[in-house]
Write a structure and sequence with these properties.
With 477 residues, the protein is mainly α. Helices cover 80% and strands 0% of the residues. The longest helix has 30 residues.
Length: 477
């Protein structure tokens, strides 16, 4: 093993370090973005509606998966180092602008700018790892790469959670910008571009060729049908970032959980707690990355004994069950249990997804087929945005449910605006209904059943699992 590590060139380790910091920046923001966009303006957040949040997050994330069709060709044309330099300038400035703008349209376009930078980064890093490994050490090399992904995904939300409590929301965006600027320094001082086959085609021809290759791969009915079915899987998987932060923030009593933890470890409770006496949603959701770091090898070693599609079916079922448990009770212990079950399904199914596409590809078309793997992820992000936005706003959003109750009672309470914040709306409503803040939450929970969102998760899971079973039974045979 020691000798294997020595085989990797310096650029391999620099690329892995840059991946860690880029994931730190991305997940440090993305895990809390749903909260920043929708929480009350008097907390420094933006106070947008759930539907606005879902549209913004879903559209940008979907674009992020689609743009590498173009940006990958640009990297081959102009070089990896130049592309990474441009990516880091865009990302660092984009993150900073997101924390500066407050207008919905401005934030939307700033996040699209970040998505452009990320789409320039993603294909270059993957290609660098590929070109700095060989057939003997590629397995270990990519294992290290994905470990860095998860370490970055764990550290980012951990830091953003503590920083926003102490210094406000703007520091989260500054943190992400600084992480990217660290990468810029690494790029300029230490990154040596690996040898690559230069692309002498015009940019337009390269992009046209990329789209043509995807079209050729999608002519395979078995592949196309599988990709369509997997949209449901990616939609469920992305609820971790889209719906769960808001649901935990609005409905889960984390104060009780923190008090329970403090009863046997006051220091640990203090370290994970927030200024309101509870635990920030991202701290709980970060357990997903922690579980992956701890158990991925074990789950993968079990999953490797079974057929890819069977594992994907089981993983999708487990993810759906985990999501449903997470939102079914409002009890934080069940939230943690649901997150663990969710992560087991993710660890089992996600690697098998890529493996299966590689398996069904004709040997001479493997790269062609693998290029289509991002399409369900793009569509899944867009659909996840709709569910966490419009659907959640109708079924489970605390603000909308309270507004309905206020109108039903005919209470004289101003509409939420620049001069009357979301928190003021909650406070005055509770006062006029003669309820405390916690009693108001419990009243809405019992009378409006916001946990009904689990029906959507369970239904999507059922459709996906049945479709995969039928695909496995009649298409693969």
């Amino acid at each position: 093993m020691k000798n294997t590590f020595k085989q990797f060139p310096a650029t391999f380790w620099i690329a892995n370090t840059m991946e860690l910091f880029e994931r730190w920046a991305w997940y440090g923001l993305f895990m809390v973005l749903a909260l920043y966009l929708t929480k009350s303006t008097d907390e420094g957040a933006l106070g947008f509606t759930m539907a606005q949040k879902g549209s913004l997050m879903g559209t940008v994330a979907a674009t992020l998966y689609l743009l590498p069709i173009i940006t990958g060709s640009l990297a081959d044309k102009f070089g990896y180092k130049r592309t990474l330099f441009l990516a880091y300038i865009i990302l660092a400035s984009g993150y900073y602008m997101m924390g500066t703008f407050t207008d919905y349209t401005a934030v939307y376009f700033a996040f699209l700018f970040v998505g452009l930078g990320a789409s320039l980064f993603k294909p270059v890093l993957s290609a660098t790892i590929t070109k700095t490994t060989n057939s003997e050490n590629a397995s270990i090399g990519f294992g290290i790469f994905y470990m860095m992904v998860n370490i970055g995904a764990f550290l980012g939300p951990l830091f953003s959670s503590k920083l926003r409590d102490q210094y406000g929301w703007k520091i989260v965006f500054i943190m992400s910008s600084i992480a990217i600027l660290v990468n810029l320094v690494l790029l300029l001082l230490f990154y040596n571009e690996p040898e690559r086959q230069k692309n002498n085609e015009s940019v337009l021809k390269s992009i046209t060729s990329a789209f043509k290759n995807i079209y050729l791969a999608l002519k395979d009915f078995k592949l196309s049908l599988f990709l369509i079915i997997m949209v449901g899987f990616w939609t469920l998987l992305n609820q971790l970032y889209y719906t769960l932060p808001n649901f935990i923030d609005q409905w889960v009593d984390t104060v009780h959980l923190r008090n329970q933890i403090a009863s046997f470890s006051p220091a640990f409770a203090q370290s994970i707690g927030n200024n309101s006496g509870g635990i920030n949603p991202e701290m709980l959701l970060n357990l997903d990355a922690a579980f992956i770091i701890l158990f991925q090898i074990i789950i993968s070693s079990i999953a490797m004994r079974f057929k890819s599609v069977n594992v994907i079916i089981t993983g999708t079922l487990v993810i759906g069950i985990g999501l449903s448990i997470t939102v079914a009770t409002g009890n934080p212990l069940y939230t943690i249990l649901g997150l663990f079950i969710f992560s087991v399904g993710e660890m089992a199914a996600s690697p098998k997804y890529t493996e299966y596409i590689g398996r069904i590809a004709p040997k001479e078309k493997t790269a062609l087929y693998m290029g289509t793997s991002f399409l369900p992820a793009a569509a899944g992000n867009k659909l996840a945005g709709f569910i966490s936005g419009t659907v959640y706003q109708i079924t489970s959003d605390k603000t909308e449910l309270l507004r309905t109750e206020v109108e039903k009672r005919g209470l004289d309470i101003p509409q939420i605006s620049e001069n009357f914040t979301q928190n003021q709306f909650y406070s005055l409503s509770a006062e006029k209904m003669n309820l405390s803040s916690s009693e108001l939450t419990q009243f809405l929970w019992q009378n409006y059943q916001p946990y009904k969102i689990w029906y959507v998760f369970a239904g999507l899971m059922a459709v996906s699992v049945v479709a995969l079973y039928l695909y496995n039974r009649f298409i693969i045979k």
